[in-house]
């Protein structure tokens, strides 16, 4: 299973409404340090689509130098997400995922699949520059950072609902 397969499986499960409304996501991945912040930005955009709420605040701790970054994401209608990255050798990439809805949950354990044949996320150049800057600002400040304009689930800065 690749990361893209995992993401499609989550999207299919959410579309089936078996979980009800998603309210919380925990997404932890191991990967090499190169482009860690860009990958976190991409994951935060993906999670925003899953939760279908505009992102309003990010709290970040850690650093690439420390080989760990943890983000707490707060969304407009009360959903939250915990994203984390830990540095690892290229052969140790993997994703641990929990998605909680108001009627159920889904889980994926990094030990259950070999995701290292496919990068954990698409190329970093595809990451939203505004989202990267927001994460970097939160890492520098060490406190929750709100958006000047909440990012919609699509990544647009209009605060509206995504596609």
Sheet with the most strands, sense and barrel status = 7 strands, mixed
Radius of gyration, whole Å = 15 Å
User: What is the name of the CATH architecture?
Assistant: 2-Layer Sandwich
Helix tally? 3
Unreliable runs: 116-125, 158-163
Average pLDDT, rounded to a whole number, is 83
Morphology: globular
In CATH, the topology is named Dihydrodipicolinate Reductase, domain 2
Report the helical percentage: 25-40%
SSE pattern, N- to C-terminal: HEHEEEEEHE
Secondary-structure-based class equals: alpha+beta
Short précis:
This protein has 163 residues and is of the alpha+beta class. It has helices at 3-15, 36-51, 129-141; strands spanning 22-31, 55-63, 68-75, 80-87, 94-101, 105-108, 145-151.
Break the fold down into its secondary structure elements and pairings.
Layout: H1 3-15, E1 22-31, H2 36-51, E2 55-63, E3 68-75, E4 80-87, E5 94-101, E6 105-108, H3 129-141, E7 145-151
How is this structure best described in words?
With 163 residues, this protein is of the alpha+beta class. The protein has a single domain (3-142), classed as Dihydrodipicolinate Reductase, domain 2. It is 26% helix and 33% strand. The protein contains 3 helices and 7 strands. It has a 7-stranded mixed β-sheet. β5 and β6 form a beta hairpin. It starts with a helix and ends in a 12-residue tail after the last strand.
